[in-house]
Amino acid sequence: MTGFDLAYVALATRDVSGAARVLGDLLGLPRQDASFGGRPVPTFALGRSALALFAPDDPFLGDGARPGVHHIAFAAADPARAGTTLADQGFRTAPAPGDAVALDPTETSGVRIRLAPPLGLGLGTSERAERIDHVGIASADNQAAIATFCQRFGCPLESQQTDMEVQIAMESFTSDRYGVVYHTRPPVPVGGLRVAFVTAGDCELEFLQNFDPGQSGQVTQGVSGNTRQDQGAITRFIAARGAGLHHIAFRSPDIDRTLAHLHEAGLPLIDRKGRPGSRRAKIGFCHPDAMGGVLMHVVERA
Fold first, then answer.
1. H-type helices in 89-226, by residue range?
2. Which residue of 15, 182, 204, 246 has the smallest Cβ count within 10 Å?
3. What is the b/e burial string over 254-276, where b = at least 16 CB atoms within 10 angstroms of the residue's CB?
4. Which residues, 6 or more positions from 170, have their beta carbon under 8 angstroms from its beta carbon?
5. How far apart are CA 166 and CA 281, in angstroms?
């Protein structure tokens, strides 16, 4: 295989109209309701891909869908043929709504994937959202994910890195005769993630693995995020749902301006300003309530 483009990302939201307002009215993305399972669904072109909004009980998603990023669709002009090719390579496949083909997520690092025809919506962009930056995936084993997505699917490995938060203690020894001596202790890791970026079309799949299984991380409500909290969010997600699709991120030319615009519109935010993130970027998360249970964040790259 030589890799795949991303046809669309399916978002399961408790508030379809509210999520459509965020993407269309607030972010300025063009709405082009595409046909899924024979009926129109709110769809927003974003870069060369698209975001499609579904209620969790929508039959197109199947049984047991919960709010969040439900599945991604790899573009295939002939899904049945592409599915046969993957089946010949040992992947388990099954029919999916709309003439699509579904892969078994136990063989794709927990990621729900469908093979589906391109939507043909054209390029979607606005002054606040340029394209999908990445789809975040809570990962139990990044190397296994790389083996599947890069070696078997043929997707390029864009980069790998380690995000780490450390604490550094400093002691001082103050004497009325000898003055002050400062001593810095070695840094102690308090939270971290192993990160791998795999390219799919004009965006990446971001695999996030807990750096130290002995650390559960922490999630503090009502404060801006940090690496330790990011580790805690991934750890809690895997404990509750298992490995799989975690969040959607879009690229913005000015993250602080975009976050301020969303805040002024009344959206609940985790981060009011951009903070350091992977690949020398600034990132800022919206609260999941902003998108009806879908975790979304903004990315600005230099």
1. 142-146
2. 182
3. ebbebbebbeeeebebbbeebbe
4. 182, 183, 184, 185
5. 19
Please give the Cα distance from 177 to 180 (Å, whole number): 9
CA angle, residues 133, 139, 142, in degrees to nearest 5: 90
CA of residue 285 relative to chain centroid, distance: 11
What is the residue type of 229?
A: Q
Tokens of 249: 């991120």
Map tokens 């001593």 to a residue.
183
DSSP secondary structure string for all residues of 164-202: EEEE--EEEEEETTTEEEEEEPPPEEEEEEEEEEEEETT
As a whole number, mean pLDDT of residues 151-158 equals 96
Q: Using the predicted structure, report yes or no on whether residue 190 has a pLDDT greater than 90.
A: no
Q: What count of other Cβ atoms lies within 10 Å of the Cβ of residue 168?
A: 9
Q: Given this model, what pLDDT does residue 216 score? A: 60
> Taking a C-beta distance cutoff of 8 angstroms, is the pair 224, 275 a contact?
yes
What is the Cα–Cα distance from 105 to 144, expressed in whole angstroms?
Answer: 13
2-60 confidence digits (pLDDT tens): 789 999 999 999 999 999 999 999 999 999 999 998 999 999 999 999 999 999 999 99
**Number of CB atoms found within 10 A of residue 88's CB:** 8
**Identity at 156, one-letter amino acid code:** P
At residue 221 the predicted structure's pLDDT band, cuts being 50, 70 and 90, is: low
Q: What is the average pLDDT across 233-249?
A: 95
* DSSP label of 214: T
Output the six-digit token pair for 216: 């559960």
**Alpha-carbon separation of residue 133 from 82, 103, 124, 226, 279 (angstroms):** 26, 24, 13, 19, 11
**Digit-coded pLDDT (tens) for 252-266:** 999 999 999 999 999
